């Protein structure tokens, strides 16, 4: 009975020491991505910046990553490049496009094409009466004596409108395609526990 209490007290003291500030070093898996607000990557990790590493010096990590992030597969392999990028889970969610490890996509800016803009039209204020002024201010489009600029039937029109009145609008500039974000550092574990499948 005395022996049991000694072992229990020793175990409790050990747990108390861990909980009281002497936290054990956290174990990370080899190839795991960790994020932090620091301006460097901790020892045993490397910045996830797409760098090429030597296979001979990092055989265990290469066995996990292969060449899906770059490298020639003979002497070098690549790390994931998360600089200015968001991470995305692999696989295919319901109704979503399948994604695989190492795939990159998306763009920081986007320029819309005509095909991407929703279909729309503009109403034309007009009258079937003959026009009585050349001043467009406060007036409506009217029929002319010699040329029809609009029709109330399906007949084709026979007047080309002034180019300035039907000129393209917009500047063909790209727009920002980013959600709100906060930048932190992404590091990949290069020295850690080799992950088992089970």
Query: Main β-sheet: number of strands, strand sense, barrel status?
Result: 3 strands, antiparallel
Q: What are the secondary-structure elements, in order, as H or E?
A: HEEEHEEEEEE
Q: What level of helicity do the residues show?
A: 10-25%
Total strand count, please? 9
Mean pLDDT: 82
Q: C-alpha Rg, in Å?
A: 34 Å
Uncertain regions spanning at least 5 consecutive residues: 4-24
Tell me what the structure shows.
With 198 residues, this protein is an alpha+beta fold. It has a domain of 60 residues. The protein is built from two helices and nine strands, in the order αβββαββββββ. The chain is rod-shaped. The chain starts with a helix and ends in a 9-residue tail after the last strand. About 11% of the residues have low confidence.
Main features:
three-stranded antiparallel sheet; two-stranded antiparallel ribbon; signal; 9 strands; Phage_tail_collar_dom; 198 residues; Gp10_C; Phage tail protein; rod-shaped; alpha+beta; Phage_tail_collar_dom_sf
């Amino acid at each position: 009975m005395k022996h049991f209490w000694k072992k229990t007290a020793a175990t409790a003291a050990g747990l108390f020491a861990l909980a009281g500030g002497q936290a054990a070093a956290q174990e990370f898996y080899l190839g795991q991505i960790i994020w932090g607000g620091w301006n460097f990557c901790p020892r045993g990790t490397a910045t996830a910046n797409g760098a090429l590493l030597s296979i001979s010096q990092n055989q265990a990590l290469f066995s996990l990553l292969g060449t899906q992030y770059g490298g020639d597969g003979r002497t070098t392999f690549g790390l994931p490049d998360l600089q200015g990028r968001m991470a995305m889970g692999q696989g295919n969610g319901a109704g979503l496009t399948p994604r695989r490890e190492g795939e990159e996509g998306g763009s920081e800016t986007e320029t819309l094409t005509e095909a991407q803009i929703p279909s729309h039209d503009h109403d034309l204020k007009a009258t079937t009466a003959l026009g009585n002024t050349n001043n467009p201010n406060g007036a409506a489009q009217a029929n002319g004596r010699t040329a029809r600029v609009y029709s109330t039937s399906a007949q084709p029109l026979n007047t080309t409108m002034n180019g300035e009145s039907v000129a393209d609008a917009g500047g063909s500039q790209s727009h920002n395609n980013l959600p709100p974000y906060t930048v932190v550092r992404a590091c990949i574990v290069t020295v850690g526990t080799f992950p088992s499948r089970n």
